[in-house]
Design goal:
Layout (H helix, E strand, L loop, with lengths): L5 E5 L2 E5 L9 E9 L5 E4 L5 E8 L2 E5 L2 E5 L3 E5 L5 E5 L6 E8 L3 H7 L8 E3 L8 H9 L5 H27 L8 H15 L5 H8 L3 H12 L3 H19 L4 H7 L5 H12 L3 H7 L2
Helix pairs in contact: 2-3, 4-5, 4-6
Amino acid sequence: MNKQTTYKNVVGLRCLRNIKKQTNDLYLVHCGQQKCPPGYTYDHKIPNEHHLHFVLDGKGVLIVHNKVHHIKKDDIFIIPKGVPIQYFADSEDPWEYIWVTFDGTVASNYLSYAGLSDSNPVITSAIPTKVYLPLVQKILDANELTYANEIKRVGYLFEILGILIEAQSALNRNKNQYDYSSDAYIDYAMQYISLNYDHIKVSDIAKYIGINRSYLTHIFKKNLNISPQKYLLNYRLKKAAELIRTTNMSIQDIAVKVGYENPLTFSKMFKQVYGVSPKHYRYQNS
């Protein structure tokens, strides 16, 4: 039998518990905001869900797998699903935090995208943790039992996780650490080139897929043994060669169509790759 959703608002603690399950992919169980008294200690039984905490102020200690983590303002920590833990507030500067507790088939994946797991339960937030406070408060404000509130609450949960993953990913990108494998970025770049080759630059490719130009160049050279600039050039000329063989378009029109305003520049680049001028290439393939 499901427990009834309860809302509590007392001095130092505001929370919403036993929230009705919304979806199997990701669903909210409870959330809240708490200003702990000095030395406040909590021993969790083995949790059935993920408990994500954002420290707004103060200090405390988290113990996971017998490892002690000293936590401060603007740190984020999880109480991992299925892992017994203990945590307590500092005796002189006790912490205040907000939390969201959730589960679902994608919950572990979303946490891992932010760099959180049972082996790495603490990270320093890339942005002030107070950014998340209004979203938790919106969940708490949506405490009345309505269909609209059920949708709003899970929407706010997605927004919290979206901001978290985006912020931590941006921090990693500054260290040239990206979300996806180099193969995935190359595939995405090649698809973008195939659709936009006639008017783009390498910087446009990098910006579109969300990595910097130097990293794009690095992975192209490492994986394809060619720079993205050379790949783009070859792709344009390959399309030009196809048009020369299969259409009656003028060489000048073909040059413009593949991204060259100056037909002389086009002819020069074409000859460098194919060994003959565009006109001669057409004659050879007529």
